[in-house]
Amino acid sequence: MRTTRVIIGLSLAAALFAAGCGTTEEVGADPAPSSGDPVTVVDSRGQEVTLDGPAERVAATEWNGVEHLVSLGVMPVAVSDVEGYGQWVSAAPLDDTPTDIGTRGEPSIDTLGTLNLDLVVVTDSLNEGAIAQIEATTPVIVIAGSTAADPIGSMFESLDMVAAATGTEYEAAQLRAGFDEKIAEGTAAVAELGAAGDQFAFSDAYVDSGTVSIRPFTDGALVPEVLEQIGLENAWPMEGDPAFGLGQADVEGLTELPDVHFWYMANDTLGDPYEELADNAIWQSLPFVTSGKVQRFPDSLWMFGGPLSMAQYVDAAVDAIEE
């Protein structure tokens, strides 16, 4: 069921990029500025960035910015860690044209400077020194990685910022409308399954020196915020960090959870850390383990992405409840 939904969702997203699609908002015949009109964007720093016209040759150093570009119909010229993006982000796939500019934390400033770019989209996690180096040759807009105070609002604020810079405001409006429709669809499905109010705990994990470290997605994380929109309740009791709502736990910390839907992300490329707990006595005694409510979500759903990735999480949660 999930595969069908994702294909339909991607097809719908592609169709929404066409100018002939309907919308509930007032949209003029030419919703984007012409190529001769300057464009000014106020980025997450509060800094005004003025471009000669809507950016066409764009690079992005973080994957939320990449997903925003692709979902808006702008294939980026350059992307950090192209291979990794392909392994983790299926909602907005790249074609074979983007140049790889290195890691997300340390993109190649030299490579960016050779690509004749109109714009580079970075996040607030890139250090100031790197931003200044890029700005020496190319305009830069800084989008938020996230904010736990309002993760969905932050997602759309970043999307709208990228849309304004690339002249794709119409497409952004369609993505927002599609997200709202997906939330309504998911809410109806959860209610029909009798699962409204069900508690869940979503996480990922990693193994360090044989120990499984768990990363709870607490209140303020994007994925749980989306799942709460469809009628579910996040069960993690701890507080997360102020940017992404991410906490820290070990297997002993899982004993604080009741009999919840325990959902997690892993990736075959890196392995499944929760498999390391199969013979752990504490793990085996947890109520959601004994009741069979542990489910791994499908690979390549990006936890920090845009509306299309979040739509995939709605489908994954509904599918998990149905199972």
UniProtKB/TrEMBL annotation:
PROSITE patterns for the chain: FE_B12_PBP, PROKAR_LIPOPROTEIN
One biological process term from GO is: iron coordination entity transport
Top-level taxon in the UniProt lineage: Bacteria
Q: Which GO terms describe its cellular component?
A: outer membrane-bounded periplasmic space
> May I ask which residue range the UniProt record assigns to the signal sequence?
1-18
Localisation per UniProt entry = Cell envelope
- InterPro entries noted in UniProt: ABC_transptr_periplasmic_BD, Bact_iron-sidero_bind
- The Fe/B12 periplasmic-binding domain is annotated at 57-323
Query: Which keywords, in A-to-Z order, does the entry hold?
Result: Signal, Transport
Q: Which family does it belong to?
A: Belongs to the bacterial solute-binding protein 8 family.
What protein am I looking at? ABC-type Fe3+-hydroxamate transport system, periplasmic component
Q: Which organism is it from?
A: Actinoalloteichus fjordicus
